[in-house]
Amino acid sequence: MMKENPRLCIVIPCYNEEQVLPITAPLFLDEINSLISKNMVSKDSRILFVDDGSKDDTWGYIQELAKNSPYFMGIRQSRNRGHQNAVLAGLMEAKDGFDITISIDCDGQDDISSMEEMVSEYHRGSEIVYGVRSSRATDTFFKRFTAQSFYHLLNSMGVECVYNHADYRLVSAKVLQELENYKEVNLFLRGMIPLIGFKSSIVYYERHTRMAGESSYPLGKMISLALDGITSLSIKPIRFITGFGIFVALMSFVGVIWSVLAHLFGTTVSGWSSMVSIICFVSGVQLICMGVLGEYIGKIYLETKARPRYIISDRTQDGVNKD
């Protein structure tokens, strides 16, 4: 059964994207006009850019877009807070004024035309529609290997996430109302959204190369995101080091028996190197375990502060129309 034409908000996080926005902004506008002309979304649908404290003229270009077309809107964070926080800021900004949102990066790598299929899935009853890459043929070997390892690691740690899905997704206002109740500071949206539930579906698409500029998501940020995903949504690393600690304790007990026997048989001097090796091994394990525990304690420390996850400093005109 076809739902009444929903108000769509396309949420696009941006960080230092002044080179790519002139190329992709018209593509987003063409897509939303196409959806309106096909009577799939309301004519009151909009495109919302979220400037994540860019250091270039990204915000100035967003302001120009908003002046020249009623379909473009923008909000600006007071400082750079990271991709996940920028996406959340846009979703929460659109939550009360729109029926559905589609989050997508502004670099043109995700297939913009797949939005039509996403909206169709919403009309068929899905409250969440995940955009999933059909292949990684355009990736380098290193990028493909690390990305696939990342998803396998998350799944092995008990994090519920969709394989090869990043942050290209459609969610309904009903889902966003529930997402608002998730108060954690360490955000990993691709793991948090599946926790909400509701009917979901998948749309497969081909990922393209970046249309212009350089990626603002280097390896360091990807590793940080992976750590946030694991430590925010799983306690398996702590259980792992507990089990590993028991194993090491048993091995140490065997070592104690060996040392006693060695003493009784008068071969203690010859076992000096073995003893040093065991001490070094146990010390290394202890430091690793302390590091894992420290990571969780650090996350708890940040969560207890309950600092704001985003701060909006500027809006184009009146920002999101919530009438």
What share of residues are in beta strands?
Answer: 5-15%
Which geometry do the CA atoms define?
elongated
By DSSP (H or I, 4+ residues per run), the number of helices equals 10
Which segments are poorly predicted (pLDDT under 50) over 5 or more consecutive residues?
Answer: none
- Going by helix content, strand content and strand pairing, the class is alpha/beta
Q: Helix proportion of residues, in percent?
A: 40-55%
Distance between the amino and carboxyl termini: 27 Å
- Main sheet strand line-up: 7-5-6-4-1-2-3-8
Characterize the main sheet. Answer: 8 strands, mixed
Number of strands: 8
Task: Spell the H/E element sequence.
Answer: EHEHEHEHEHEHHEHHHE
- What's the rounded overall pLDDT mean? 81
Radius of gyration: 25 Å
Q: How would you characterize this protein structure?
A:
The protein has 323 residues and is an alpha/beta fold. The protein has helices at residues 21-37, 58-68, 83-94, 115-123, 141-156, 173-179, 189-196, 219-233, 236-264, 272-305, and strands at residues 8-14, 46-51, 72-77, 100-103, 128-133, 165-172, 200-205, 312-315. Strands 7-5-6-4-1-2-3-8 form an 8-stranded mixed sheet, with helices on both faces. Helix 9 runs antiparallel to helix 10. The chain starts with 7 loop residues before the first strand and ends in an 8-residue tail after the last strand. The model has no long low-confidence stretch (mean pLDDT 81).
